[in-house]
Each structure stands twice: as C-alpha cells, then as structure tokens.
C-alpha cells in the first residue's frame, strides 16, 4: 500500500523521546488536519503501546503537547501519545461564532445534519483514517488506550466504550459525562445530530453507553471540585448513577483543582501509570 | 509600610500548590507589569526559598508557567518560583519591529541611551522594586536562587554574578553567555547602552563578570547540541574560556535537544534539585 504523504511541522527532542507534529489531508473530513505525536526513545521502545489524547473545546493538538507535561512519564514508561485536533478546520468548513460549536468543537461524533455532516465526521476520522495513517508510518505494539479532557473526556469515554475490545483502558479529566443532559452537549447534539432524532443521541453519550457495555473496560476519572463547569456542564452525578456498582471505575473528585491544564498536569502521571498497568 | 496594590489575574491549584499571576504598576519601569508566582503548599512550606526564573526573547511570564512543568518538582521540594515579564510594556514604551529589541527583549539591564532609558530599567525593577513588592505580600525563607532561558539565562548569570551574596546558586538553559560577542547581544547593548560606551557592556556580560568574581556562586548550565542558535548567538566557548578552572560550574551539552521549552521541561527537575542543594 503506498504511504500517504505526511508533512512534518515540528520535531523536538523531549525527555529522551521525540515530540512530533504533522499535517495531512483528511479524506473523511475533506480538509487538511494537524496532529501531534510523542514517541518514546525508539531504541529502548521500538514497539510502544499507543495512548490517544482527545482535547477539549477550543483546543488544538498543541494545548496538551505544550501544557500537560505528559512526555516525562510517557518517556519513562515507553508509551506513545497521539494527539489529534478537535474538529475539521478551514474557511470552507461550517463554523459558529461561539466556542462550543463548529471548529474546535467537533465532539468526536459523526454529524448527520446539514451543514455539519459534510465535514464533521470526527469519530470515523479518528477510528479509521487517522488510525490507519499513523500505523502506516509508525510502529506500535498493538495495545491502545484512550484519554482526554472535558469535551475530549467525553470523546475518550464514547470512543472507548464503543470499542471495548480495542482500548484496554479509558481515562478522562473533567469529562462532559452526560452530554444529553447539559447545555454544551444539548447544543452540539441538536446541531450535529438533529433535535427530532434524539434516539441517536444515545450513541454518543457515555451515560447511555455505560449502561449497555458487553465488556467492562477499566475507567479512571479525575474531576476538580473547584471546576466552575462541574455541576452545569460535566454532570458526574448522572453518569455515576447510571454506572453498574461492579463496574471497574475509579472516580476521584479532587479538592482545590479547576478545569485548567494545571489540573491535567497535576494528575497526568497517575493516568499514564493507570494505562500502563492495563496495556 | 502600606502594601502596594496587587491585582490577582489567575489562581490555579497545581500539584498541591498554587500557580498565581498578578498585575501591578511599576514605578521603576513606569508602566503596568505582570508576573507569575508558584507557591508550594503553604501549610507544608510556610517559608519557601525563592527561585527567580527569567524568560527568553519574545516571551512573557506565561511561557515558563505553561510549558516548563516546573510546578511538579517545586511542589515536592517546597520551592517558590517567581516569573517576571521580559521587558516594560505598553503603547507609550519604546519598541522595535524585530523580536530581539524593545518589548519582550529587555535583556535584564538598565538602559542608559534614549529612547530606551526612559522605561528599560529591568535590572533595577527586578532586584529592587519587584523584589520588595513580593516580600511585602508573601513570606519566603530568605534563601534565593536564579535561573533562566536564553536571554533569561544571560539575565540569571548577570544578576547572579553581580549579587553573589544574595543568590546561593545560578542556573541557565541555553543562555546567551557572551552577549558582547554575538549579534543578539551587540544589537541590544548598542541600543540600550550605546556604541561609544563599550566599557559599560562589561557590566552586563557574564563572560566578563565571571572573570571578576569575589565569591564563587555555583552554576549549572544545560545547552542543547542541536540548538540552532548555539554557535552564533549563545557562544559557550568564549564564556568557558574565560571561566577559572576551579570555578564550581557544571556545564552539560546534551545531544539531540534544541532551543525550545521541550528542552527546558526535560531538565527543569535537575535544575530545581541543584538549587535545593544550595539553599
């Protein structure tokens, strides 16, 4: 199979590994996309397991790469980290003036409603196209896990729960746990999936998917108790009430922390060690 | 003494400590300034030693705060970190269209030449005004060290070497070690200090100050071998040739690393542990 072209934008030595950034043309999204990839020392770890990191509203792949400090522990444990962008991009791609819809707010689903359905196919892009692309260009162990922050925590839970034999563990920081119940999720789902079609919302809602699992993938969640979005937008209470008592879920509500990358950075090591246990 | 007003801009829980950002009106610089401050857990460390961090060309206090990942080790060791901005700021402050002169490029000296001398008094601002201000508002142990990156590495060495009884250790990442010998430094010193007054340049050049020390403050330097500025702008060879063989200098030229914050993040823990040994 001929390798699709990948344009390298950045290449930095980091903790003995390499922090990379690329651009490629996405057929699924019909636009150019960037992604970042951390590789641990390829001599020590020629076939690393792969952690997917999904970012939050208004982020690109740069926020996690610059601010989470994940490279240190990933280099130590020999974990590769793939960080995609959060939506299709470009002047020809539908958008909205608010930060919580359109570009930067793809919600990791496949939109069915115009004008969004033309480009907003993030689920298929991630699980098929980008997944195939990086496996053509880099070598991994075959083990995968998935994590994310806020909207990306929603994405990690949804993608992980929909693919329980693919991802050996799931984790999230301040995830939107019950999107069908909260303003961010209702606005996104109404636009991307349609108001009259609320049955389809259940396919993209972790609080619904967790009730229908056939295989229990271990989950780790950290929430900051001082997160200003906790009650209104993240709604952990609803998700927790829908999760079976015997589900292997570790849920930490940590005092003092907010919604920022200072919170993510403080606990990213714990998440990487959690995933390493399950690879 | 009445406390000067400080406006808090940010307050984030981070690794059990607090990442703060403030704005205040500087009398020395005659403009409003921001600075960031990391405090470890004040219950565990009510009187922490203070590390000054000076940033590089075009940076503000945010670059280090967001990207270096220093909070983790500082929280563990109980070290406070003060991160000032890199120059005076504002529409009424002299500037230059290039990144290496004017706003974002104060070079941590006291300018003597018009139009720069009106506001560009970063040495006096840091060592007197900002130093007094933070000690009015926060409690420290009295022990201080100083570090920085690129132009800020120059600043750390110059300020540390000029105040050898104040700072117990000095460190730097990719510092401009011989500013009088390289394009960045020659342009800055010509503008700020004057071309006809090159004798004054020696007061702001680590390669000169290291030859006149009366007390040998320990120094740790990391340089990336793949730093594109290494030979032309940083000139470690000249500095090393001027440093006494018995000087307590640890100089690491590390393979693979460049000039970025990925390099700083990879070795910031080693620098914090170095300073902790000397407090």
Automatic annotation (TrEMBL), chains A, B:
Organism superkingdom: Bacteria
Gene3D superfamilies, sorted: alpha/beta hydrolase
Pfam family for this entry, one: Esterase
EC class of the enzyme, as a word: hydrolase
Catalyzed reactions per annotation: S-formylglutathione + H2O = formate + glutathione + H(+)
UniProt GO MF annotations: hydrolase activity
EC number(s) on file: 3.1.2.12
UniProt keyword annotations, A-Z: Hydrolase, Serine esterase
NCBIfam families registered for this protein in UniProt: fghA_ester_D
Protein family: Belongs to the esterase D family.
Function description: Serine hydrolase involved in the detoxification of formaldehyde.
PANTHER family assigned: S-FORMYLGLUTATHIONE HYDROLASE, S-FORMYLGLUTATHIONE HYDROLASE YEIG
Name of the molecule in the record: S-formylglutathione hydrolase
Source organism of the structure: Listeria floridensis FSL S10-1187
